[in-house]
């Protein structure tokens, strides 16, 4: 194995200032630490123009548009193993590799479950590029680099030439980056519809509770879906600017999948692998925040004291311990954090951490396949919870509750859970908000929790709107 062929340190800038200059490129991807948390890395990445694209559709798996017969994860493993890379330990972890979208519906393929839900947006369950060049930004050290692997060339001289050529191309864009800026737009107010009325959603929550008492499951993650047509002048990039400012989170991201856009402000890590060490950080338990400091502290204290929210979190921790144990060495899976409080722009959350060490012969792709989709957004047991979700949610989830992130040539990985995430395609936008339902859940409280989680996403649209409040309309519709 060898290091990336070209590594060049560049002046540190806020990556958000320059991403608009790369957003027009094929499969442009911004893994955005909009809220920097040193414990979680505090690194952002910009990349685009992959040399290969792997796409999983309902009826086929495509590599650069040509159908293949293998499982999408097997293809991913094959592509990454063809270009082994030694990670430079002095640089951020993603130094080239596979990156993009692993949609929730990919889980149906893995579990061989029947699919009967309508799919009105038709996002590919998986859209992943193989990226040979990356811009990496370490917010904590205030350093940045262009990293160019030279792949898919493998002969040493040809790889070095390719790496220099590609690095030069990115550096040329950097010279003028920041001049374009984020697009601005004012649009008419959107006409939102929800998949459920308040009464309808509460009835579905009760149905989940009935399944729990019948012994089918211990917990299921139920959501409601909001969707609206978009005006002709709508700019996903302009919207993302408002989203990342108004709902800054540790795992924000923007990805052009090739036939649509994902705009995410997720606070949740799904899976991280670094030098064979594994971490997942499930979120379960939520309270809204208050502008009044005393009330805000009381809300946080109430969450920490909640037996219901703690039980919800612990159930998912147990599920994820089991998932990690499939590919981690014996006696390495542990829970160093349980139900810790984390606070974000609009919500308090309970967050736990589950860690482990990969078994010899297992890698990040094996871990992803063994754990997908994330237990925090399915329930327990996972497969039965997914069946109940499909019964009660009228539309396929698409990108929602899938993952966005990377698997590097060197074997490292970092992925988010796609909550607080919008899918934008064909002048339509959709997003979902939900929560874990357990035996003592209160249907009305669960409905109100979905609105707490959705509030900042509606407000990001309101920031570009010339009219009424989208969120007020949804609340009034009940």
From TrEMBL:
Gene Ontology terms describing biological process: folic acid-containing compound biosynthetic process; L-tryptophan biosynthetic process
Domain Anthranilate synthase component I N-terminal: from-to ranges: 13-145
Assigned EC number: 2.6.1.85
Keywords, in A-Z order: Transferase
Domain of life per record: Bacteria
Ranges where the Chorismate-utilising enzyme C-terminal domain occurs: 198-453
Keyword Oxidoreductase assigned: no
MF annotations from Gene Ontology: 4-amino-4-deoxychorismate synthase activity
Claim: Ion transport is one of the keywords in the record: no
InterPro entries in the record: ADC_synth_comp_1, ADC_synthase, Anth_synth_I-like, Anth_synth_I_N, Chorismate_C
NCBIfam families associated with the record: pabB
Stated name of the protein: aminodeoxychorismate synthase
Species in which this protein is naturally found: Aestuariispira insulae
